[in-house]
Amino acid sequence: MRAGHDGPMSDAPSSAHVVRYTEADAAGRLHSEICLRNGPPLIAALAPWLSGASGAALEIGSGTGQHAAALSLAFPALALHASDPDETHRRSAGAWAQTLRVPPRPVFELDAARTWSDRPDISALGPLAAILAINVIHIAPAAVLAGIVRGAAARLGPSGLLIFYGPFRQEGIPLGPGNAAFDARLRESDPAWGLRAVGEIDALAAEGRLARGALIEMPAQNHLLIYRKAR
């Protein structure tokens, strides 16, 4: 899954649905202009957190795979694996890795709403340095969020990072008009979707001994929400 509508800070909706993907090209690559726009600020904001990290990492819901490939280039000490439940998305992620000459790595078929942390192929990666979900949890049922956090609690190594990116609800801070309208459209499309509350994620994370490390404002009413596993 992937969605996004990043750009300058504004009241424009921060995200839109996967229909923004182009048709796959001859190499199997899906294209998202949103990934091109939000990639540089995302890498810049993650640099203080990931520049010193090494080991295996996992992106959940990689969509086109553009982010996974770009992050692999930006943080080469991380062996970042893409994953997605959709075969077309997985093929695109592999094609983007090849295009950008990222070291070849398996792209996992992974539905985060199901138990995934004890799968042999995931366990074989060892303790993970980071797990990322970029523009995923608002276009997925709550079971996906819960599954991501549960899996992170099980698979992250000591001081490993769980990183969410997208639009969120924050207690005491009204949604901007754009995100409020977007949230309403999501819920109309599927009642199980919608912007997740930071407090809800904090509570799930705490159950897995994951402490919030940062909530970082990003362009177009998005945020990075970062948790660190206890040592």
TrEMBL record:
Q: Which SUPFAM superfamilies match?
A: S-adenosyl-L-methionine-dependent methyltransferases
Gene3D superfamilies, alphabetized: Vaccinia Virus protein VP39 (3.40.50.150)
One Pfam match, given by its short name, reads DUF938
Q: Which InterPro entries match?
A: DUF938, SAM-dependent_MTases_sf
Q: Which domain of life is it from?
A: Bacteria
**What protein is this chain from?**
SAM-dependent methyltransferase
Q: Which organism is it from?
A: Profundibacterium mesophilum KAUST100406-0324
Phylogenetic lineage: Bacteria, Pseudomonadati, Pseudomonadota, Alphaproteobacteria, Rhodobacterales
